[in-house]
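Repro case for the chain-ordering regression, as requested:
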Amino acid sequence: MNNFYRAVITICKKELFLEMKRKETISTMIIFSILTIVIFSFSFNVEQVEKKILFSGMLWIMIIFSSLLGLGTSFKKEQNNNTLAGLLMAPVDRSAIFYGKLLANMIFVTFVELISIPLFLIFFNFTITENLLLFTVFIFLGTLGFISIGTFLSALTSYSRSSDLILPVTLFPLSTPLLIGSVKLTELVINSGGEGYSPWIQLIIVFDIVFLIIPLLIFEYILEA
Amino acid sequence: MIHFKNLCKKYGSKMVLYDINLHVNRGEFISLMGSNGTGKTTLLNLISMLIAPTRGDIIFNGKNIKEDNINIRKKTGYLSHNSFLYDHLTAWENLKFFGELYFVKNLKEEIKRVLNLVNLYLVRDEPVYSYSRGMVQRLSFARVMLHRPELYLLDEPFSGLDKDSINRLYSILRLLIKENNTVIMATHNKKHAHLLSSKIWNLNNGNIVNDETTNINPVTTGVDGE
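-- result from build under test --
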């Protein structure tokens, strides 16, 4: 296997291994998701038709805010003992650090989604059996875009003094088109079986591609700065 | 082996290193001396490519480090003030991670080798957060040696070590010299510098003010200079 991919997998494995030991990020994300579901389900006493309108927005609120908890610590935890410098000295293109972290963040968020989305459906008495595959693909693509932007900005902001504030302030405006597209796509799957999704899926795919490629080109300079 | 050409580093408006022009031959042990803030760590950070120079070049084995940085990083080992180690991982897990990142062959054997060298093999399965300062320093040294670099950059390697650990580190450094490795060590300690180095560079106001050659044979000289 190419050294670059080996380094990406090594960094991802390290992230997962550290998380298994510390159990900080995933547990916080899961607790937050469950709390959101419980609050939403008790707050909105609505009919089935209204639920269909609200569902996708509530689902994405849960996904983005729980993801943010993981993204915030993604690069910040490399400050302890300056482990980021240890990664930077590795004989591999430095963008491997980004892709390793991205892969790990995707695994964390997907794991949380696998627990929280079924719970969301149960609490809201909802079933998505007909378009489950389409629903899964849309959630995956939306999550991938959000996590790509988030991991990139996490690296960019981790060494600033108010990184906890700067990350959401930069992440939300930048990802707004992607989030609107994701909410719309989820809504279309639920209400009309996914008809008319073409422009939204194009928007999301463009976002995903752009934010997967940009770090390859400029990540080294960002870390140097 | 390494050549510094008009090397300058500026932080904001402060010039930390100014117009450094020096040459390091293979197998040399160089001590960088100077008081706090004279640019010792900055020079090591520049060679390790953690920071970029404001002006000038560093030539490593005839190649500019800007152009061949991945290969040069493979040949460099840096012991910094920070350990670069993950506190929640054990010594073995830390070394396994760094070994994989450096694509070290026969990784298990290499980890055993370096852990034995720094006398941490018996505590290899304990997390780093349970280690003393000296043990962390020794483990950092094991991390540096793991991929068998040609160039060792050591920033205050003796800090936090007790007498036994200092003796052990001395014997490791002598082994490195014997194997014709190149070492650049930043230190405040004149005794360590004089006992180990073939050359001493004194830094002052961002420049090398004195380049002295010692007559010591570091391989045969003891810790106490005998």
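Ordering looks correct now. Chain B touches chain A through 28 residues (CB under 8 Å).
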